Amino acid sequence: MIKKNILVINCGSSSIKFSIINPINEKKILTGITKHLKNKIYLIKWKINNINYKKKINKINSNLEILKFIFTSIIIKNKKIFKNLFSIGHRIVHGGEHFSNSVIINDKVINSIKDSIKFAPLHNSEHLIGIYKSFKYFPNFIKKNIAVFDTAFHQSIPKKFFLYALPYNLYKKYKIRKYGAHGISHKFITLKTANILNKEIKNINIISCHLGNGCSISAIKNGKCIDTSMGLTPLEGLVMGTRCGDIDSSIIFYLYNFLGIKIDKINKILNNESGLLGISEISNDLKYIEKNYKNKKNFKLAIDIFCHRLSKYIGSYITLFNKNFDALVFTGGIGENSELIRELTINSLNILNFKIDKILNKNIYYKKSGIITKFNSRLALVIPSNEELIIAKDSYNIINNNKFIN
């Protein structure tokens, strides 16, 4: 039997997602996620061949101990799964300017990931833990660990779009620029849309909207990203679950100089207490906000601001395509499931000849894909994202000398 299965590890700041995927037939053999319940108690849920398992683990101090359980008690212990592993793919949030493609992990790559910790301190440090523990528990796979970067897909953005109008020396010396995020998702949407529209990647022109607790939008021209909404960090751009997105940067100085709020607290306000949560004053859960959209004033306001910012970005990005534009695509937890967000956003784009089909739009939810606009409208689609599949395919391609084609 030829080994094909890829172990995909996404070591985050508050959870770990893991899966084993066959990149050729795209079947998921195993999926799992960890959840921090309280104090040092964690819940691990996983599914193997459609059978669900879960376990609470007490007195856990860090992802180090959680990974030990995942690797030894779930994967290595299951000999049938373990013996068919081919390589290990790691999702890495930030690669700085170092990487425009996925790569085999070596000392140089690890040092580059460390160098980018300053741009994603909560994520990159945890990714490194995932890499080190993979080396420890899977020693035969040390040269088969692949880093797949969220920033890589955005390295095609031209300098006139990724630079801020700051003193140029800040870019030259400190690499302060737009890097973007969600690149793995945007890449998947690009490939999937090209497949659906029966077009070559090099000819696909879309706007991809990844909408979840974190939100970003990308303009993809001739199969390459030319602009994206997230910046040096994931704080810039759209309104998100708890992040504010674009603001006047002088607000930070006002909060500090006139209101006496400390820098650490300002950082917490912008990243953890703003967005849908900040406006609604109650929740960042869009499902909950939608249910009360017509009954609570601030809930309606939160959604209206969210959609206004999104439609404004779409309107500005569509000018980058001239006449060659294929589709507007919604993805992510909100993009895939929120009929209301899609309708309100598209209704704001009538001048660009986007016309929502309410029946089609209502019928698209939970892992469904399809068209949501009328026949005489510009095309808008919903496509469920699958970042794990991209990681698995990239990992297989690189280790297998690119013999397997997407």
Give structural notes:
- The chain has 406 residues and is of the alpha/beta class.
- The protein has 2 domains: 5-149, Nucleotidyltransferase, domain 5, CATH 3.30.420; 198-387, Nucleotidyltransferase, domain 5 (2-Layer Sandwich).
- Helix content is 38%, strand content 20%.
- Strands 5-4-3-2-1-6-8-7 form an 8-stranded mixed beta sheet, sandwiched between helices.
- Strand 13 (370-371) and strand 14 (380-382) form a beta hairpin.
- Helix 7 (183-196) packs across helix 16 and helix 12 crosses helix 14 (339-347).
- It is globular and about 60 Å long.
List the total number of helices. 16
Question: What is the correct CATH architecture of the largest domain?
Answer: 2-Layer Sandwich
CATH fold name of the largest domain: Nucleotidyltransferase, domain 5
Q: Name the shape in a single word.
A: globular
User: What's the average pLDDT?
Assistant: 92
CATH class of the largest domain: Alpha Beta
Order of helices and strands: EEEEEHHEEHHEHHHEEEHHHHHEHHHEEH
- The percent range for strand residues is 15-25%
N/C terminus separation: 22 Å
How many extended strands?
14
Percentage of residues in helical conformation: 25-40%
Strand order of the largest sheet: 5-4-3-2-1-6-8-7
The parts where pLDDT drops under 50 for at least 5 residues are none
CATH superfamily of the largest domain, please?
ATPase, nucleotide binding domain
Number of domains as seen in the coordinates:
2
What structural category characterises the helix and strand content?
alpha/beta
Reported for the largest beta sheet, the result is: 8 strands, mixed
Note the quaternary state here: single chain
The radius of gyration is: 21 Å
